[in-house]
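@channel sequence for tomorrow's demo:
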Amino acid sequence: MNAITPQTTGLSRRGFLKASAAVGGGLLISFTLPDLMRGAQAAEAGSFAPNAYVRIDHEGRIFLTIQPVEMGQGTYTSMPALIAEELEVGLDQVTIEHAPADDRRYANPMLGFQVTGGSTSVPANWTPLREAGAAARMLLVAAAAQRWGVPADACQAQRGEVLHPASGRRLGYGELVDAAAKLPLPETLPLKEPKDFKLIGTPAKRTDSPDKVNGKALFGIDVRPEGMKVAAIMLCPVVGGSLDSVDPAPAMAVRGVHQVLRTDNSVAVVAEHMGAARKGLAALQIEWNGGANAQVSSAQMLEEIKAASRQPGALARSEGDVEAALAKATRKIEATYQVPFLAHACLEPVNCTVHVRKDACDLWLGTQVPARAKAVAAQLTGLPEEAVQVHNHLIGGGFGRRLDVDFVADAVKIAKQVDYPLKVIWSREEDTRHSTLRPFHYNHLSVGLDEQNRPIAWTHRVTGGSILARWLPARFTNNVDGDAVRDACGPYAFPNLAVHYVRHEPPSGILPAFWRGVGHTQNAFMVEGLLDEVIQLVEADPFEYRYPLLQQHPRALRVLELLREKSAWDTPLEPGRGRGLALTHCFGTFAAQVAEVTVSPSGEVKVDKVTSVVDCGIAINPDSVVAQMQGGTIFGLTAALFGDITFKDGRVEQGNFDSYRMLRINEAPLLETHVVVSEESPGGLGEVPTVLIAPAVVNAIFAATGKRLRRLPIDPQELRTV
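structure tokens (generated this afternoon):
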């Protein structure tokens, strides 16, 4: 998720960092990243409200409290590397402490509130964390030099100690923290040059992996506070529907069941363990009221969005004179592309453990927005926010699903009815059928070519539900959803272009939501697809045709040049096989993929190999870059081949992985990733491959079959030749 335009401020370094004594003794470096909450600070008469800390105690232990939560992307390895690099310690010497729920103190610096998403963790913290590490190191060195009566530049830091090579003296960081906390911050904070990095850019083992392998790692679904019971939940199968009645007797007859609880649109069975809760829930005869959505279907929604897409919409971007350019174009191609609703299918289904008391409330879960979880619990319980404590845990897959707190609200409503901690767990089926969804989009595109077959005009009319209008209304401006129109003309330089947005909401109860890669995932599929249509029409080479359109992006050109070499693009393939190219510039990263596919006479698509080249700037941990490209490619390929949430009679038709298919291991392609060595500041990465894979595969399918697919998921029936 990166739905919000990054912001910057003119905050000075001395307003950014602060050194002080930690509670109980030690050195505390507090900082804003940079602080987007200056108004709140001013309201506190100039008080300093930091949103992250580096703390060193008397034993020399280093603690880093950070805002981003670990959900598989490697945050708990990359963040300490930034501190450790400048502090001259090893990764093994830094302990991660997750930030408490607090929008004011722990705002994501690029997004303005406490959130993990948008591939922002590394870009947002790249400079601030290194500067915090440098400040701590310089203060510790200065404290040692002062004690020894020598110049600071005669000392050096190494593995948690300050050394004086000339005399052989050394002091551990823990011995220096009290003195360091009393010193003024350095006026300047010189940072290492990339050539001097010891940790950054060096492959490192994930610090969170051992406990995930040995079972010690705690996810939200693993917590067991004392006295806890478990609840299985069922929501009204019709989206937006409600509960009419339920007889609890059949569930209460199941051994281990304690209670049957209800809300306005759900029933929950409370038991000693999940098996009994599920069995009790299955025994119930529940009367639901489907309401206005009882007849809603995918076919109906398709006709409605088609009609809406013919409207002109709000202007999101305009350059040059599109109408004049189209009027003099020698060729014009028009196309409609569509992408379906998608659920997130996190490995760990959504869950939340809640303990509501008269004067306090505790939440145990994994969430990308802890402050939002805190706020909704406070609202529903009537407690002040300071009485609500969020215990955030490792997340077993976020992908944008846990940017919403609907499941938290449901859990709190149920837990209010008991006096013990209650873990509310959604089954896989409930999680799929009541997931927030990537929006269904139906888009019109056109391109005009000149006599040399170069594009002189580009239009893209985006039609679909608005995530921002629901999730962050302040950023839905001028009737344009900024996320929905991302990448609507790609990274290419078209001399004349126009992008419009038509807001068309699905029926009430269907919640448009961020999905890994967000607006880029829909528009890159369409832009790269239409551009490939042009290239095939004019019989050009997909690499060569793109080069003139990317002269303003030399990094993109380098990515393409390396990809052409590594993918064996110019090597012929046998009939029935094809290669397809896709390029993106998103989240500050340039990347491209070539997919090789085989299409059988029955229309079945087998993706044989995917070659990726990525320039994400400086790679903090190159191993994580490769892992992200691999995992994201599989995630995106699963959606391209199988992802489709459909509705009949107001109900989602998919449930478990039998009907909402995942890519199986025998279906996985060979994945080859090449990382461009760069000294640019890091970009985001976790969502990049999900943007690329669908258009690369669809373009490869055209190369193999001559058939152009303009909608997802890929339908073998459209490719069948026998």
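heads up for whoever presents: The chain has three domains: 16-33+48-204, 220-291+350-426, 300-341+438-718.
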